[in-house]
Amino acid sequence: MSAEDGSAFDIYRQRVERPLFRLFTEYGPGRLKWLTVGMVANVFARGASLLPPLVLGVAIDSVLSGDSPYSLPLVPSGWLPTTDLEQFWFSVWLIVGSFIVTAVFTWVYGVAANNFAHRVMHAVRTDSFETMQRLDMTFFDDKQTGEVLSVLNNDANNLENFLDNALQNSVRLGVMIVGIAIILFSLNWQLAMVTLVAVPALFGLTVWFMRAVEPRYVARRASVGNLNTRLENALSGVELVKTSGTESYETGRVEDASWRYFRDTMAVLRLNYVYRPGMELLAGISFAITFIIGGLWIFRGQGPLFLTGTLSSGEFVTFLFMTQRFVTPLAQVSNIVDQYENAKASCERVFGLMDIPSQITEAEDPVELEDVEGHVEYDHVDFGYAGVADGEPEELVIEEVRFEAEPGETVAFVGPTGAGKSTLLKLLIRLYDPVDGEVRLDGHDIRELSLESLRNHIGYVSQTTFLFDGTVAENIRYGRFGADREEVIDAAKSAEAHEFITALPDGYDTRIGERGVKLSGGQQQRLSIARTMLQDPEVLVLDEATSAVDTETEMLIQRSLDTLSADRTTFVIAHRLSTVREADEILVLEDGQIVERGDHESLLEEDGLYAKLWGVQAGEIDDLPEAFVQRARERAAERTDRLDAQADSLSPNDD
User: Fold this and answer.
1) pLDDT digits (tens, 9 = 90+) for 484-533
2) What is the pLDDT of residue 411?
3) CA separation for the pair 223, 217 (Å, rounded)
4) Pairing of β 585-590 and β 410-414
5) CB 196 within 8 A of CB 320
6) In 3D, which of 323, 227, 337 has the Cα closest to residue 284?
7) Does 437 have pLDDT greater than 80?
8) I want to staple 413 with a disulfide (CB 3.0 to 4.6 A). Which of 268, 344, 421, 537 is the partner?
9) CATH superfamily of 376-457+537-650
10) The CATH homologous superfamily of the domain defined by 465-536
């Protein structure tokens, strides 16, 4: 994949249309009752909050000054008290009641809206993780784990914040604008026109801000993912950093990523520095104009400029209170837009992750494996890593591989680094699919089998051991969670791990830390082997299973592996040829092709690549042939070029 193409994640993110609408249509059903209750409660709360200024204005004009009869909009006059004292106390209790109603319905809204927001985000976060779990290994070969974590955590939190706060403030703003406009126009339509004159300007400024800020939010979300990746890599590799003395180098890389995030954040804030003060200025001007025009109207007893009619003191007070309540929500429009744009960018990233298709899919009616014998066939298999844009392989790394393993046989794969040994066996587990040819297990094309049943019958011990933060027993039991303590101990004994486990502070209940950092490399490897032994699979794949242990431990583990593989089909990848000399068949790979095959003795007689590798390891040959060394150097240079290109595509620009 070229740097220009971008990752699959980037491509599918750009294809997401109307992300927030999609969020509601896909995750709203079944949860809309909470949103509906919340929105209705918010309308009542905001409506009740507009009542005190209106009642106060009426009380001033009718009860305190006596200039007009006591009347309230939409309330029949027969329901209202007639004496001044009764009208006064009625006004007091009406105002107090409106505050109580506002508080109660605000509480109802808070409960309902938070239920909706957090239920939606629980589903989004769970679905995103489930989608990520189903993605092909090609996605993880390319995608930075820090950015994936950013999607699952930061972006999901942004959506939650939008659903929790922005919706509330949007409804509040809408109710306030409509409610205030109705009240003001009912009191004095001319002064209402003056008060609301700034609304078109506010709307225009908001439209400009939303169009200008959207691409900047997208860039900021990407820089967050890049920064998370850099931090995650630095923390995961802290031992390498310290032993290499490269703390300053890693600090520089984090500093570059952080500076990129700073630049992208400031690009958003620079627009906010214009938009937010602009909104507050326009809203403040609206309040000031209302105060000036209304004050002159009261002071002169007639409308200034082109205004006609009368304006009472109570109406003027109501206008001032209403305008002030109108100013505050308008000043918060910037926060709503900020949350909206942030959520939109995050939503694109979430659905961009969800939309990435998986190439490793099951058949419509997959076959469930039962009574597996372990007969494996590779029939003219080709494989290449798929490109992002068209899904076609850029180049073949496995070509025309064919071999057969009978049940109970051990087949070994040897060859130089990068020859395709590990990739070849990952096809058997369907971490990848061949682009041509078939891989069969007991006569079934493995693409016809259910993934779960296929992988349940194949044990895989990788050259890179992974252990979870938990106890020793939990890590051995992983994959067979129902295994009892005796089965766990038997598996550990078979892997030559029981002795060192019992020497740990809490034995099998000792917590080993993230990635098993409290154990040595050899101990980690033996736990991984014990985990596979507990699985008791019919087919066993050992990818450099003894690479992290010393010679003595290797001998002990090899003895256990010989016992484990005695009655099952076993595939072994090894650089130490001494560990595979007893294999039924040894396949020698070079540049993704099988160049030699046979048992140990016959391959030595051929005097080919295997014999040369054996001679070097046995000390019988001082050096490899120059042609072999040159090919190895060329492969190393190609890998270095690819890594450099990927690093260049991920590095922030100097400007």
Assistant:
1) 899 999 888 887 888 888 888 888 888 876 666 677 777 888 888 888 88
2) 92
3) 10
4) parallel
5) no
6) 323
7) yes
8) 421
9) P-loop containing nucleotide triphosphate hydrolases (3.40.50.300)
10) P-loop containing nucleotide triphosphate hydrolases (3.40.50.300)
Residue for token digits 């998986």?
358
As given in the structure block, the two tokens for residue 535 are 């699985």
3-state SS class at 605: helix
Query: Per the structure block, which two tokens stand in for 277?
Result: 């003060």
Query: Which one is the CATH code of 8-354: 1.20.1560.10, 3.40.50.20, 3.30.428.10, 3.40.50.10860?
Result: 1.20.1560.10
Q: Please tell me the number of Cα atoms within 13 Å of 639 on its side-chain side.
A: 10
**pLDDT above 90 as % of the chain:** 11
Residue from 170, 584, 219 nearest 336 by CA: 170
Q: Quick one: tokens of 434? A: 């061949």
The better pLDDT of the pair 348, 65 is held by 348
The identity of residue 505, as a single letter, is: P
> Which residue type occupies 249?
Y
Tokens 């609408």, residue located: 21
HEC secondary structure over 211-230: HHHHHHHHHHHHHHHHHHHH
Beta bridge partners of 590: 593
Q: What b/e string do you get for 53-67 counting C-beta neighbours within 10 Å, with b at 16 or more? A: bbbbbbbbbbbeeee
**Ranges of each domain in the chain:** 8-354, 376-457+537-650, 465-536
Token pair recorded at residue 531 = 């985990």
Strand order in the sheet with 444-445: 393-405, 376-386, 436-441, 444-445
Give the list of residues 6+ apart from residue 419 with CB closer than 8 angstroms, or none. 589, 590, 591, 592
Structure-model confidence comparison of residues 93 and 74, the more confident one: 93
Strands 444-445 and 436-441: antiparallel
Judge whether residue 655 has pLDDT over 80: no
591-644 confidence digits (pLDDT tens) = 889 999 998 889 988 888 888 888 877 655 445 555 555 555 555 555 455 445
Say how far apart CA 200 and CA 204 lie, in whole Å: 6
Distance CA 443, CA 374 (A): 10
The SS3 call for residue 68 is coil
CA 457 vs. chain centroid, Å, equals 31
Inter-residue contact 4 to 645 (CB < 8 Å): no
**Phi and psi angles of residue 434, each rounded to the nearest 5 degrees, phi first:** -65, 150
Q: What angle separates helix 84-134 from helix 32-49, to the nearest 10 degrees?
A: 150
Question: What tokens were used for 162?
Answer: 């939008």
Question: 143: pLDDT confidence band, cut at 50, 70 and 90?
Answer: low
* The two three-digit tokens of residue 246, written as one number: 């490269």
Rounded CA-CA distance 585/589 in Å is: 13
The per-residue DSSP string of 521-568 comes to: HHHHHHHHHHHHHHH--SEEEEESTTTTS-HHHHHHHHHHHHHHTTTS
φ, ψ for residue 578, nearest 5 deg: -65, -25
Give the mean model confidence (pLDDT) for residues 169-197.
84
The number of CA neighbours under 13 Å toward the Cβ of 338 is 18
DSSP 322-373: HHHHHHHHHHTHHHHHHHHHHHHHHHHHHHHHHTPPPSS---SSPBPP-S--
Q: Which residues pair with 573 in a beta bridge?
A: 413, 543
553, 583 Cβ separation under 8 angstroms: no
Helix (H) or strand (E) holding 441: strand 436-441
* Distance, CA of 149 to CA of 158 (rounded, Å): 14
Is 376-457+537-650 in the same CATH topology as 8-354? Answer: no
Q: Which two tokens stand for residue 263?
A: 């630049």
